[in-house]
Prior knowledge:
Blueprint lengths: L29 H8 L3 H15 L11 H14 L3 H8 L3 H17 L1 H4 L5 H15 L4 E11 L18 E8 L5 E9 L4 H6 L2 H9 L7 E3 L10 E2 L8 H27 L11 H20 L25 H12 L1
Parallel strand pairs: 1-4, 4-5
Antiparallel strand pairs: 1-2, 2-3
Amino acid sequence: MAANVMFGQLGRRRADKVFRERFSVQNMSEEEIRRRYRFGKESIKQIVDLLDPVIGHRTRRSQALSTELQILIALRFYASGSFLQVLGDTTGVDKSTVSRIVLKVSQALVSLAPRFIKWPTDEELTSIKSDFFKLAGFPGVIGCIDGTHVRIQGPSENEPAFVNRKGYHSINVQAICDNAGKFTNIVARWPGSTHDSHIFNMSGIKQDIERDFRSINDGIILGDSGYACKPYLMTPYLRPSSQAEERFNTAHSKTRVTIERTFGWWKRRFHVLHSEIRMKPERVCTIIGACAVLHNLAIMYNEPPMDEDITVNGNIQGNYNGPEDGKNIRNYITQHYF
């Protein structure tokens, strides 16, 4: 079905149910559409165009749900965190159909992850360094890494592994973001009890960075003290012993907070990530991945809120000729910048 009836008739009569008027966006204001679906009209149309080749029904059946309606149902679920039964009551679609739609749209979005969640190009990395440098004067930063927990219902299999340090069941999600808060890498497949450092050590992005890292001029990522200090991953001093080390920690914190803000934006936009998702862990991971793709699309489509872009030269100056280990590089940056 062509994706050209986004804000017209959203559905036809189906058995004894009809799609209720309040689910239509035809007469909604832009503000109301964003409140319900977290995207404006034009952005939703672009998402429909992206997903229609994947989820659009190639059938003449009058009861087939349009791509537009499927996406609106999924977006409403991501935005509200409503139980599927509540969402089904709202839309006039039964629970089992809503469940299938959410899974189908989520899988389609995840299939787009290699296109929309990807490591920056060399040209993009230069710009990212400059933008990060403006925040607190920390040089060479190409990303910030951290983990965040998404609460889930206790699974029937391997239940203890999903209990995190705060005592609830979760998926521990690792992400790296750039200066604009866009995800450049995300891993959503580990039970809540898994430590952040283990997730990183087992991740493909760690192997890629280690393989390609030649010097600090390639760029570094910032992580908290839960990670090991590496040549390409700077962590704060646990016990700073000089004013320079204190300044290093301050600049590190002011820069690294970008990933924490990003998680905040992400979870506020998609409230399902704040609620307890009552699904099997595998399906939860798919929903997390779908919301990560949508987060990057929201940035690409200039959906509010967005910070103003900032640019300044953030390359590491001078030539570092010392040992290529994390602590020596951290000392070099401290001595030359703080």
